[in-house]
């Protein structure tokens, strides 16, 4: 006599044989078999297949519920169907008949069965990523389940980031955090901090790729709030690009005052504010000028010198100020100072170790190296700045030469290396013309300048560096004519901003019986200077005043026309030199006719062609310095 199993299998096979050709007969076999053997999986499963193949969503759901409830762990066929169901739910936008069936059948399952399907799938899946996707699917279908299940999901995400950080970070910030943001679960501080650091790393990569940075920062602050809620922190401020950074800093100081030493809350709030300020600084260091992206470099400003002395030679313990040289200077200086405030806080004993580890975990190396160099410049730490500059590998030679020159000026005197940097800078001038800057020289205190890398600003800075080194010599006894004349040429760029120096030069000229102004017919084109020279000439009619100059040139400076020597022409104010007045007027008219020439190009050529004489003025030497032609 056949056993129960044999009878059961016989009925199943008969139902399977008739399933395609005669579904009604097949169902009759199944109904009969289920009556005889109600706890047989094969019969229950075959009944489900009949309903599935017949696209009977509601009846199929009843059969599926029965086998999912009563046969959870025993049969691979059941898990294959569950996988097909969950895959269809994860890809509901697909329109294949198979996907459509599973999605519609799911809607006829009871909520309890739906939830159990997800949980059993999670518990029996060996694939970490697969379980994470099922969790996300379950949270979408059952939002309340996130309250109890989210910590486990977040732990799995943190674990996955060890092997595939990009993928798991994206899942965290784009799929998981938005689902739990309204009611974040409580987490251990270590896990919450790891998740925030990973989220920050994800968004920083977006920011560095120049995508929508405002949205990225809005999301960073949102994630910070979520992780703060997980650990019961006092809320920080939400992000708004219209909020002054002082407001964020004041909030941080307020939280700091009520927190224990080394508080993780202060660490992460201050780190976020530091990176936000740092990004604002780095981003604003580039500005569009004349349709070109022009970088700005932090350099030492010039201090006006007075022969009476004003205490400016005495090093001040006060931090330097920022000169408002360009429209972007205020925003740049604020971002830099806020970043500096946060950096100093985070490098105190209570935070330094944890902050250093955070910095190593984030993709900030290029920003940090630039910021630390500028910070060393700002605080006047020359040795540290030199060390940091040697470690910076992305610097252009133009920027490096400019920074070396700035370090020279910081120490109070230009070295031969600094002068060589001027020549290198002038050899690499960019095509963007730009504008001359205001407030490059200030009186009484050290100050910093954000210098745009334009032709005008770079030449202005090089000229200012030379003048700042030479100006004191004008007030020394027996100042040579050639030095006075060369300073007059350089002063054409900054005439109104250093009236005292110009007055001293003209005062010395008036006191002399003769003056060798060899550069007059080649390099002096400023109308104010020409008018003053004409005034001196005319006022000295009764004295035997001689003005030595190169002969009238065609206007383009060359090595021949500036050589002086035997080609110089002496013009006296007395009638002994017939035609002298006409010759002086001719020189003056010629130079006035050139007054609209590009003074930037003129002075760049002057420095290049007269670099030996300038080096002799500055260093008292006449050894060769690398000659570079300015085009």
From TrEMBL:
Please give the GO cellular component terms listed in this UniProt entry: integrator complex
Signal sequence extent: none
Cross-referenced SUPFAM superfamilies? ARM repeat (SSF48371)
Q: What are the start and end residues of every segment in region (Disordered)?
A: 549-575
Record field: compositional bias (Polar residues): 549-570
Q: Which InterPro entries match?
A: ARM-type_fold, Int_cplx_su10
Q: This protein's superkingdom?
A: Eukaryota
Q: Where in the cell is it found?
A: Nucleus
Keywords annotated in UniProt: Nucleus
Q: GO annotations under biological process?
A: snRNA processing
Nucleus as a keyword of this entry, yes or no, is yes
Which residues lie in coiled coils?
Answer: none
Identify the PANTHER family for this entry.
Answer: INTEGRATOR COMPLEX SUBUNIT 10
**Which family does the UniProt entry place this protein in?**
Belongs to the Integrator subunit 10 family.
State the protein's name.
Answer: Integrator complex subunit 10
- Name its species: Drosophila mauritiana (Fruit fly)
């Amino acid at each position: 006599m056949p056993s129960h199993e044999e009878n059961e299998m016989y009925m199943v096979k008969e139902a399977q044989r008739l399933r395609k050709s005669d579904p009604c007969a097949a169902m009759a076999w199944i109904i009969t078999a289920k009556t005889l053997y109600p706890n047989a999986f094969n019969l229950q499963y075959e009944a489900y297949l009949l309903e599935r193949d017949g696209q009977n969503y509601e009846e199929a759901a009843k059969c599926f519920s029965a086998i999912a409830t009563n046969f959870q762990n025993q049969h691979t066929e059941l898990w294959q169907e569950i996988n097909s169901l969950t895959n269809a739910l994860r890809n509901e936008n697909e329109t294949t008949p198979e996907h459509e069936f599973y999605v519609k059948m799911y809607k006829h399952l009871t909520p309890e069965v739906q939830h159990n399907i997800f949980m059993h799938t999670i518990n029996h899946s060996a694939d970490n990523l697969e379980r994470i996707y099922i969790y996300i699917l379950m949270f979408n279908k059952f939002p309340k389940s996130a309250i109890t299940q989210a910590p486990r999901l977040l732990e799995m995400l943190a674990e996955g980031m060890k092997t595939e950080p990009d993928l798991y970070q994206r899942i965290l910030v784009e799929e998981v955090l938005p689902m739990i943001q309204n009611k974040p679960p409580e987490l251990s501080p270590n896990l919450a901090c790891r998740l925030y650091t990973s989220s920050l790393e994800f968004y920083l990569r977006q920011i560095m790729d120049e995508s929508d940075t405002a949205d990225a920062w809005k999301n960073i602050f949102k994630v910070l709030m979520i992780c703060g809620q997980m650990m019961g922190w006092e809320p920080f401020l939400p992000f708004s690009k219209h909020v002054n950074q002082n407001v964020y800093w004041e909030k941080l100081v307020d939280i700091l005052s009520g927190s224990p030493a080394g508080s993780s809350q202060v660490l992460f709030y201050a780190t976020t504010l530091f990176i936000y300020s740092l990004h604002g600084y780095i981003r604003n260091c580039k500005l569009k000028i004349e349709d070109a992206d022009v970088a700005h470099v932090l350099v030492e400003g010039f201090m006006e010198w007075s022969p009476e002395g004003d205490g400016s030679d005495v090093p001040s313990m006060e931090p330097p100020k920022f000169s408002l040289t360009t429209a972007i200077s205020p925003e740049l200086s604020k971002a830099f100072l806020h970043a500096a405030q946060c950096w100093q806080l985070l490098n105190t004993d209570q935070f330094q170790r944890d902050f250093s580890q955070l910095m190593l975990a984030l993709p900030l190396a290029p920003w940090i190296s630039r910021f630390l160099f500028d910070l060393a410049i700002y605080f006047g730490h020359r040795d540290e700045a030199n060390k940091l500059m040697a470690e910076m590998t992305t610097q252009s030679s133009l920027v490096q030469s400019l920074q070396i020159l700035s370090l020279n000026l910081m120490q109070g005197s230009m070295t031969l290396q600094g002068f060589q940097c001027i020549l290198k800078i002038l050899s690499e001038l960019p095509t963007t013309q730009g504008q001359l800057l205001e407030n490059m020289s200030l009186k009484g205190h050290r100050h910093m300048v954000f210098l745009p890398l334009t032709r005008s600003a770079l030449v202005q800075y090089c000229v200012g560096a030379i003048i700042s080194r030479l100006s004191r010599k004008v007030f020394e006894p027996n100042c040579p004519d050639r030095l006075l004349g060369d300073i007059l040429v350089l002063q054409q760029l900054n005439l109104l901003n250093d009236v005292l120096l110009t007055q001293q030069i003209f005062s010395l000229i008036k006191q002399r019986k003769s003056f060798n102004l060899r550069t007059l017919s080649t390099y002096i084109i400023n109308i104010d200077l020409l008018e003053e020279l004409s005034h001196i000439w005319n006022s000295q009619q009764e004295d035997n005043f001689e003005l030595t100059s190169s002969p009238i040139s065609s206007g383009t400076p060359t090595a021949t026309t500036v050589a002086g020597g035997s080609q110089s022409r002496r013009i006296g104010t007395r009638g002994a030199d017939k035609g002298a007045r006409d010759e002086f007027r001719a020189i003056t008219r010629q130079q006035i006719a050139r007054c609209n020439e590009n003074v930037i190009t003129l002075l760049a050529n002057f420095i290049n062609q007269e670099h030996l004489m300038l080096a002799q003025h500055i260093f008292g030497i006449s050894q060769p310095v690398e000659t570079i032609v300015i085009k």
